Amino acid sequence: MITRRRFLESAAVAATLAHMESRSLMALSQKAVAKDDVLQWVDPRIGTGGHGHCYPGASMPFGAVQLSPDTYNDGWDWSSGYHITDDSIMGFSHTHLSGTGVGDLLDFLVMAGTGKAKLQPGDRKNPEEGYRSRFTHSTEVTTPGYYSVMLDTYKIKAELTATERVGVHRYTFPKSDEAYLIVDLHHAHLTKHGTTVVSSEVELTAADTLQGGHVTNGWGNGRHAYFSMQFSKKPKKVEIFSDDQPVSGKRAEGVNLKAVLYFHTKANETIIVKTGISAVDAAGAAKNVAAEVKGFDFDGTRMTAAAAWRRQLGKVRASFIDDTHRTIFYTSLYHMSLGPVLFDDVDGRYRAMDNTVKSLPAGERNYTTFSLWDTFRAAHPAYTIIEPERVPQFVNTLIRMGEESPAGAPVWPLWGRETECMTGFHCSSVIAEAQKKGFNADYKRAYAMLQKGRADDVQGMTWHKEHGYIPADLEGESVSKHVEFCYDDWAMANIASRLGMTTERDERLKMSKGYRNNWDASVGFLRPKLSTGEWTTPFDPIEMRHWEKWWDYTESNAWQTTFTVQCDPGGMIDMIGGNAPFVTKLDALFNQPSTLPSYAPPDIAGMVGQYAHGNEPSHHVAYLYVYAGAPHKTQSRVRSLMDTMYKAEPDGMQGNEDVGQMSAWYFLSALGFYPVDPVSGIYVLGSPVTTGATLDMGKGRVLKIEVQRTNASDAYVKEFRLNGTVQDKAWFRHSDIANGGTLTFVMSATPNEALGADVKGIPPSQEI
Questions:
Q1: Model confidence band, residue 18 (pLDDT cutoffs 50, 70, 90)
Q2: ∠ CA(767), CA(442), CA(373), 5° rounding?
């Protein structure tokens, strides 16, 4: 298992605009769009600054291709290959990670230029030394499915769009006898400031077609990626380079491979490049191109991408008083729709977790890039509402992964490789939640897969199972791992129960309560324990370790981890002393100084006291007041977090986006509810920012959200109605809305402390 921190240490516009590419940016910005066109409310620049780690380029919803500019390929804040602070571009690669805390991918960079071709990208401080180009953000246009920028150094306009498996470029050149395109197979995200490419191959298979691939040992160790690239104009000459030296012939193998294609261009002449990608082989990539992009119709491809995004974002029609809230909301939905990403070819072949090539059953789709430690919390619960067709596909993918992977149940799978990143096996939550909510899958097979994934002594699993805690002197991050294993046990208990496996259910339920074994009442926190049964010393709740060898908590400390018992909120409250003492302690969390140790990772961001909104283990915490009979405190705190933790700016996220989780928190919170315990199928109320919304749940089902308020600042729920019936509780079940329904919030400037305060109105805990 590797956390993002440890890796870092070791690695030290719409269809109405589609015909306008040749016009100026000013004309684009002034073009009127339909008032109800959801694309106008998405700003892909959000998260490209600060530590958001987002990319601004072109993709399809959950598409395999993410065609985007790379401004740098090294360092934590360039995990996506792009940062808003840069002023030069290396080129445009076809795969990118959305908001992760570790970098990888950036496959098959293409760069356009004029003059003498250069084979190195050059330094950001002196881009003219290489094939980089200077640019200004004022010439960037980014909207779902489309990106463009002026490469100032070469006076070339670059435009990008995509289908699911194919990236399409259009370059508008000046008049030149020395125009060129460089394809750099050596380009990838660096590790320890060095290349991750271990082997490459490239071949000019036709006068207008280049094919090849490479294997990389980055975050996804031993990752295979292949491409087939076709050009709308035949080059006058093609040169292939190995280690920056020209090679004879039309094919080469090696580590550092590049190809340069030379052209004569007239003023404003365009050259279109269409690139299919595959994890199987170059032939599969070529099939993807043939199936998804006929001819070289860039505008048509862009229109198709815009239409796909219009359908995707149009699943939710939400209104807001404040346009800033609307932009953040729809950009959140956009970011949630960038992953997991498609990971199969049009012929159904895919690269399995054991590195073999397999074929999918008819009608199935395969996915990758599951940031499960993050996304099980809110992104996957949101998908159960607005992605009913994809949820079974996600579940079936996870089952296949676990069966095919030597490592067992997936933890953080990336492009057919297991990264072992982060703690726990939270595919169990995604599977159990889908089962609870009635999605079809083979759950008996899923349970067997999860058993396989937990059979070996990984992450201290044996101690967790046999002793009820993980010793801090034998295993790093012991407290966090143990608590997260407890949640996985809770998920497995639910699966077993619905399969009629009562013995397994009872065993898992018992194990899920093991979090209490790390509770030290004398200090009032979940605390590391040694193999002798003694507590570690010294103890300070803001510290993350008791010695230098390793940490006791995963990207957190005792303050944050003590509130992470999502499997049993009621039991956690009883452990702390009951409702009143729990509320007092939760208040104290938010009111502490935001002091952290000097060695704390940058992932712990967005601090409010010792609450860290920039790191996912805190995401449910503001909603815990509901379980203690104080929903009004949740409403106040959640509204404050929405107002302070998100901005409609590049530096608009407090922490990494993490493949949709940071956005999913805002998306659900803006609608007025959140799943503290996704497996339970229960949503607790927050404070809706929307003034009303309708969500398409598929098959004619609609979830309608009505919000009545006098002032935009009204943060408290005065009355809550579920399907027309006034409630005395501040929560509801997924089954209440599974076939569609109506949630009605009557908002007020003052709290209704009676709503949800009675013990009968508190959400159940550990109810199967």
A1: very low
A2: 60
